[in-house]
Amino acid sequence: MIALDHHFIDEIIRGNLQEEVFKGQFGLEKENARVDQDGKLALTPHPSVFGDKLDHPYIKTDFSESQIEMITPALNSTDEAYHFLETLHDIVTLELQDEYLWTSSNPPVLPSEEKIPIAKMNDPKEDHYRVQLAEKYGRKKQLLSGIHFNFSFRDSLLIRLHQKLGQTVSYQEFKDGMYLKVARNILRYRWLLIYLTGASPVFDKTYIERCVHLSNHLDEESHYFPYMNSLRNSTCGYRNEKPYYVSFNSVKDYVRDIRQFIANKQLLSAKELYSSLRLKTAKGEDMLAELIEHGVEYLELRMIDLNPLSKIGIRHDTLQFIHLFIVFSLFLQDEPLDLEEQKQAHDNVDLLLSEGIHAKIQMDHTTVSMEALALEILDSMMELLNILKPGDTKDQQVIEQEKKRILNPQTSYAAIVKSEIEKSSFSAYHLNQAKLYKKLSMEVGYQFAGYEDFELSTQLLLKAAIKRGIRFDILDREENFIRLQTDTQVEYVKQATKTSLDSYSTVLIMENKIVTKEVLRANGIRVPNGEAYGNIEEAMSAFENYLGKQIVIKPKSTNFGLGITIFTGEFSIEDYRKAFEMAFEYDRTVLLEEFMTGKEYRFLVMGDEVVGILHRVPANVIGDGLHTIVQLIHEKNKDPLRGKGYKTPLERIQLGDAEALFLKGQGKSAEDIPASGEIVYLRENSNISTGGDSIDYTDEIPDSYKQLAVRSARAAGATICGVDMMIDDYQNEATPHNYSVIEINFNPAIHIHCYPYQGKNRKADDKILDLLFEAKR
Amino acid sequence: MIALDHHFIDEIIRGNLQEEVFKGQFGLEKENARVDQDGKLALTPHPSVFGDKLDHPYIKTDFSESQIEMITPALNSTDEAYHFLETLHDIVTLELQDEYLWTSSNPPVLPSEEKIPIAKMNDPKEDHYRVQLAEKYGRKKQLLSGIHFNFSFRDSLLIRLHQKLGQTVSYQEFKDGMYLKVARNILRYRWLLIYLTGASPVFDKTYIERCVHLSNHLDEESHYFPYMNSLRNSTCGYRNEKPYYVSFNSVKDYVRDIRQFIANKQLLSAKELYSSLRLKTAKGEDMLAELIEHGVEYLELRMIDLNPLSKIGIRHDTLQFIHLFIVFSLFLQDEPLDLEEQKQAHDNVDLLLSEGIHAKIQMDHTTVSMEALALEILDSMMELLNILKPGDTKDQQVIEQEKKRILNPQTSYAAIVKSEIEKSSFSAYHLNQAKLYKKLSMEVGYQFAGYEDFELSTQLLLKAAIKRGIRFDILDREENFIRLQTDTQVEYVKQATKTSLDSYSTVLIMENKIVTKEVLRANGIRVPNGEAYGNIEEAMSAFENYLGKQIVIKPKSTNFGLGITIFTGEFSIEDYRKAFEMAFEYDRTVLLEEFMTGKEYRFLVMGDEVVGILHRVPANVIGDGLHTIVQLIHEKNKDPLRGKGYKTPLERIQLGDAEALFLKGQGKSAEDIPASGEIVYLRENSNISTGGDSIDYTDEIPDSYKQLAVRSARAAGATICGVDMMIDDYQNEATPHNYSVIEINFNPAIHIHCYPYQGKNRKADDKILDLLFEAKR
User: Which ipTM value was assigned to this complex?
Assistant: First the structure.
């Protein structure tokens, strides 16, 4: 009964378009109700950190003030869309203080109808529309939440197909034809998508009285209808008062029909048509007019439930399946979807939701079980994959997975969710999931899913931008080069802190240690005394002057500790020569400086402010009198902030040769059990890269030092920089002699101040955006 | 009779201070009268490009508006001082349109007294002082010009000596003692310095009537006194009405005596005391008070004539000799210089000027010829050198030279000048020298003497800064990193065009070709189409798309033409692969771009303005039907703008293998004689480094292209940049299709726009300073 269009398949193969047809743009939208700690609908306003609800491109409110909507941009793969939605989800989650994102499409425990807050949009039209909806459908129904999946084929595919197949019609007409064909097939078989994605089988007794009245219950609160895997798609769900069928034969007819419903006052506007699928254009001010002018630009699939089994409400393989189903719909034989067929398709959804996958339906004048038909569809999808992507097992596995959910309805998401709810209650289960997911989001708060190849500082900045509704592009991924954009401003940023806020000469000053020192000194900042040498001979002639002193010998312009020698004790003329020889390998000019005592602190200066102060401590564990050093390391490494290869704010402590040797030097072994409270160091150096800890001292260090850091930055003309200061004892106020600034860095990492080992998140990411976008206004 | 202080010499040697004693700080001041094309005193105002006459640290006016004064800062060697003065001289010369710097200490042809313009200082005190001088001395005498030599020993030397020798007095007293000793010896033997530096033996008949009346004459205009080698130091010269002797026994006495003369109304102020030597302090608001407070900080020797035999008015070996004489004066036995000895010293000068070097003087109760005493002094200087710097032949040669001038008075500067004047006239000779020197200054207008190791762009910027009185420091010589400073502003500049005017992100945009293109494209600028590849395989898979097209393959981020391949004709898959392999050696990302037709022009954008447009042409000669290619190259290479190794704006055309091969490819040989007007190219590439020509098109290219260049700069947010544009035919206005921007450069060279092969000096150096210092206010 399911017939592939082999003529079309042949054209695709002849055009060598097999890969192209699987490409496209993917966008996701999802809503989550906010709930309080008890799982009740949160009655608080939309978090103000997200700025303007109406203008924010990524984070808005839906019908209710308590319903957050997250929207990804159009991205190039399901993978990217998935990760972006995950990041939106994480960002929103972390900004909710004592609240959670409700994990079900079905509303949480609700107050009485009039207490449900309608979103305040500060826009009379938007506000009026929501009031009308509330009157027409009741506020409770509007709180049903779900996921929309937006998809478009590549223009290049459609252009090529038009050249091959559609020469008799215009490109726009041809393109519309392609999308309409897909739309019809999706509408026809949407019951299958609803079966496979449905995940809202149970609802709370505070939901619409009529529905609760008609339903069965698992316990006092948790209600359900037998076989109904998606309340949201059911008659008790997010539907118009009655089904409004619109033509999918042409864009013109589609638009005409919707306009007719509006003219008849059956619909308030096009967006009140709660269909499972919409034809869309990129600019949607007046969607219907745009459709006529530009044709279909993408399809919006709207029947997908939030999946409580996934942190972000949808699994990645579900996205893959929906994409494969859309592509499959293009390759299906085209059949009419007139009023009768639309009714049939609509009834099939209701049949599924009332009788389940074993229900019998009429198809091509024969009776067939939904299960059998579903399997036939999946087999046909598999057949298509075998033709277009022979040997691609990844997509085939996705289809195999879904097949199992049909063969064994107990493994469908709805069935699993229902069985989980049976163990506690609708409310308890979903709240528990929400709390679990919040924990997961917190653990990866420092990263931007899908952008893990970026430096952490850039990942944080991108997330901060998203949070306040600043759009972004990646200009050069390898270089962490991004563009941030609002309606009125464009900013280019590289590696998070290289921005338009600093001038070129400022950076050049900081890049050059000699110049830096001169500039700082000229501005009354204490810097280490020292000299610069252009060759070994010059340096050697100064040897006697430094005999017996504590000195540092270092190349003028390296930043990674290469070629640096420190003499704190006695040194011979040979040692001295060797140190210079090594340094000269890295630069033509080598500096000799007095070695500064005290501890080193990194001051992150932004604008006129010290945003964070950090001190690094070598890798260490603290004994408890019970566990060995090995065990203590293992325990400390469990911290989700610790990882390997700079993908996390901290690195795991290793126990390699270097550490073993360092322990040995202290007369210790890794199997020793340190006394309770004893600090055991595993490294001499305090680098984060070798497992060091970063300790936030922002609140401890007196203001006098902060002023020096700000003055240092100002001397170089810097807006954003890292000032490395040696401080003898921060418990004393700064004097002209008890500190020195050893370096200012023009590309300070910000993540270390946001996710230190000990201390607060200093929100350096937000501060950059404040300076770039607020201060510049 | 001349006795070295051997005790002092021993102390110096014991302290290992032999080198230190020859170090110090050197400053020069000189005046030149401005003259017109006929050698008459110029009556025009001081050139306005030099800004404020009073505040300018380097270029001022002296007594007369027509008398330019040039002042070097204190520098570390006679060499540096010489070069700095040369640069000041060049700068001033080049700004005088139809005027010249008069080469004699004696005034040029003068108008009547009252027509000589007194400098307008816009300062009532200064203006009043000049009026008083004019009344007291007459304006003509005030027009005598000369050179002042300022010198200080190193503080470190004096501190060491104080520790060794002077513990019983304070450091200031000790230091004053050292300088006073030197001062006394210089005053005593100043007749020798005047003999060796005197170069104003003849004067014009328009000079002071009384002097003309008393003198002999060479011709109708040119007057002289027998044996007088320096009019300026004579009774007809720059002297007070009568000699005012002040004590040099202590600073206190020195100050007391001057104050007494002022109190007695004999002097208007301390600076009216026209002594041969002054004690000075660095800050001279109230010099006498400062002397009491801080002691002597340097000595000012004031008896030096302008030497018409040297472009800048003084030879370098003269500076060396004066320095050696100062050092020598420190090592001479100290003898009293009371009133009587001062009179004697004064009379000796008059004796020298009236009787010449063979005059007999009284010395230690015996009669001796000045010649014999001079030789004894020089021998004694030589002896000292042999002790302190054995084997240093350079300084010894200087003394030997001067010795010859004593033994053979005809070789003294004055004698040579007089004999030259005899060939024409006072006025004709000096004017001729002035015109010759102007030509020499113009030939090296692109360079900053003593700073030739800097990039030409930086040399030009430094000179432009000096011109308008902006002080500078060198922060990192190797890196061309300078600090520019006025009383109210500090600017840091690297390589002339890396300034605070551009933001860091702007530079990062330009540094990255992919980002540049994206930014330009997003702002409606046409850029070459193309793609970026991350590895060979990706690139190879695109091969078919580019078959038969004209393409460029280049690394993403190199700026020196390295790793670039251009295919304008057919190319094989192997050629294509090789090109990518080569490019990948330079960058991880390689760009493939369409090859742009048309000619390439460099637009130098500064602010909202295109300052210059340059087109480069390969090395070539133009035939005259007479000379061979070799001869034509030789001729073309005579252009002083051409040199070797980037020290000049253009490079000499070579005739090496590459050029010979290129000629052969055209069926030509280097010995061929090209027809008149025939252009023979010697290279395919148009690089300046291989002898290419730079042609200024600033006035030819239509405004429509300039607007595109400015828009390109603005797209990247750049204030200073080089926009490289391909233009199909500049005779047509720009359209969206007949140009493309192939690069924007954040560190454009400016010298190429100031000293092109053909075209005007576009003064890009001045424009940078306008933007840095004017626009920022």
Answer: 0.84
